[in-house]
Amino acid sequence: MKCQSFAFINTLEYNQRMADTKPIPGPRGRPVVGMIPEMASDMLSMFTNINNEFGGIAQFKLFSKPYLLITDPAYVKHILQDNYRNYIRGRSVETGRVLLGNGLPLIDGDFWLRERRLMQPAFHRQRIASLTETMSATIATHLDGWRAKASEGQSLDMEEEMTQLTLAVIIQAMFSTRVTDQVKALGEAFKVASSFMLWRSQQMWAPPLWVPVPKNKAYNNALKTLNETVYPLVTAARKNPRNDLLDMLLEMRDEQTGEGMTDEQARDEVVTIFFAGHETTAMAMTWMFYLLSQHPEVEERLRAEISTVLDGRTPTFTDLPKLTYSQKVIQETLRLYPSAYLFAREAISDQVLDGYRIPAGTMIFLTPFVTHRDAKYWPNPETFDPERFNAEQVAARNPNVYYPFGEGPHLCIGNNLAQTEMQMILALALQRYKISLVPGHPIGFRPEATLRPKHGMRMTLQNL
Ligand code: HEM
User: Fold this and answer.
1) CA distance 349 to 360
2) CATH number of the domain that 419 lies in?
């Protein structure tokens, strides 16, 4: 694969290179609307079909605007890693700004780099280790709350349960014991605000936030609750640190200037971490429980590992590396059901990628969902097989065919936290229950901000 940028060439050479480029293949789409009907009715099938028919780089239109779909791992690497400065978040994240302000996933360039350097140490493995005790207590309390339902044979919606659980985990990790009374209100406000943000991102037009229509009012109230809770917590944490995630964020100093975060930055990052750090983990766990219910042989092996390593104990951070099969189950779940199934970039200068011209301003979709299920890179891609992640198979594979946490400098900052939390939930849940899908419950996709199950996930529990 050859890639060229045009930063240091003269006009003649530039014109020559542009003339040499080959057309990007792609579906013609319908007059006026392009691929809008396909995108609206079944986005994941549309991306899969485009990839199957046209390959790892394809162009399609939404109304009159051209977009690129990039799924070839070498091209993904070019965009996310080798040439990431040219491919920014840009316009792709604008709708998120109403809630998340200038949170890390919404910014680019030097501002992003400074913020990332400031936040990175808070997500170091040792820091995460110090959060695991609170984390396991929050998880155990939530899971113990299922006992009555299990005894009465009632079903529960795993999607909803995992969403509540992971939100409680991230709120407790962020604020430790400061917010025991406010967890519910904070969770509710966050839910309203984030579903409003999703709704707004799907509208062609929405009334400005000051127009008092019901949706705006509900959002403005939720935002008020969030801000009125988070700002005082930031002030309290500055005065009286307790070694939680918020303290770690506030403690960090820019190496060059010695400055830390302003209150506003801290607010944006706190809300961002709630947003980026709970729904993704919740959906991965929901799909994982579904997969285990369909693959008793995998569940059995997992139970055997948990019982050998833990012997009924609550897992600690040092136990987690010993639960190697559970790590493979998590990796394979994220292959088939990558919570962050779609993200986007905008090219800021003209580039030629493997002979294809990508003009400045092009919006690019990247979707691990499609690469992770492409038979070119994964034999029997639809089969759930955690052994794909044993050392030999990993070594034999191109590492760029798997990117559930993204790749390159924007790689998910919370990936260690997420993996720790997922291993904890998995072990603590399997120690308590046998979890089954309600017979006949329909399974489908509801691709929203994350990859959700279309009809929720109704499951029953058996006390162990
Ligand atoms: C299974 C769980 C998770 C998945 C699948 C996931 C996936 C991702 C992906 C794909 C990206 C890259 C997006 C891009 O390149 O534009 C990302 C970035 C990010 N994630 Fe996660 N994430 C998860 C959990 C978390 C958690 C627990 C946190 C925080 C506590 C978190 C915070 C972030 C942040 C702040 C970024 C932006 C990083 C940057 O731009 O430098 N994520 N995540």
Assistant:
1) 4
2) 1.10.630.10
Residues 282 and 426 in one domain: yes
Nearest-angstrom CA–CA distance, 73 and 399: 9
Q: How far apart are CA 105 and CA 362, in angstroms?
A: 19
Per-residue model confidence (pLDDT) at position 428: 98
Whether residue 453 has its Cβ less than 6 Å from ligand 1: no
| 370 vs 50: CA distance, rounded Å | 10
For position 9, what pLDDT does the model report? 58
Q: How far is the CA of 24 from the centre of ligand 1 (A)?
A: 30
- Nearest CA-CA partner of 84 in 270, 345, 457: 345
419 lines ligand 1 (CB under 6 A): no
CB count, 10 Å around CB of 178? 18
Same domain? 230 vs 362? no
Burial class from Cβ neighbours inside 10 Å (0-12, 13-18, 19+) for residue 414 reads buried
Q: Which of 78, 170, 261, 280 to mutate to test the pocket of ligand 1 (most atoms within 8 A of CB)?
A: 280
Q: Are residues 126 and 23 in the same domain?
A: no
Compute the distance from residue 32 Cα to the ligand 1 centre, in Å: 35
Q: Is the CB of 368 under 6 A from ligand 1?
A: no
Q: Are 334 and 347 found together in one domain?
A: no
Nearest CA to ligand 1 atom 1: 281
pLDDT-flagged residues of the chain (< 70): 1-19, 177-181
Q: How far is the CA of 176 from the centre of ligand 1 (A)?
A: 22
Which pLDDT score, from 0 to 100, does residue 353 have?
Answer: 93
* Residues of the domain holding 449: 104-339+407-464
Residue in 166, 412, 421 to alter for ligand 1 test, most ligand atoms within 8 A of Cβ: 412
Counting Cα atoms < 13 Å in the Cβ hemisphere of 41 gives 4
Report pLDDT for 180.
65
Q: What confidence score (pLDDT) does residue 179 get?
A: 67
In sequence order, the β-bridge partners of residue 351 are 5, 358
Helix (H) / strand (E) containing 28: none
Specify whether the backbone of 67 is left (phi greater than 0), alpha (psi in -120 to 50) or beta.
Answer: beta
Q: Which of 363, 386, 403 is the last residue of a domain?
A: 403
Number of domains into which the chain is organized:
2
> Cβ contacts of residue 455 below 8 Å, gap of 6+?
441, 442, 443, 444
Whether ligand 1 lies within 6 angstroms of the CB of 272 is answered as yes
pTM across the whole model? 0.93
Say if residue 290 is in the same domain as residue 369.
Answer: no
| Residue 284 beta carbon below 6 angstroms from any ligand 1 atom | yes
Confirm or reject: Cβ of 29 under 6 Å from ligand 1.
Answer: no
pLDDT digits (tens, 9 = 90+) for 53-62: 999 999 999 9
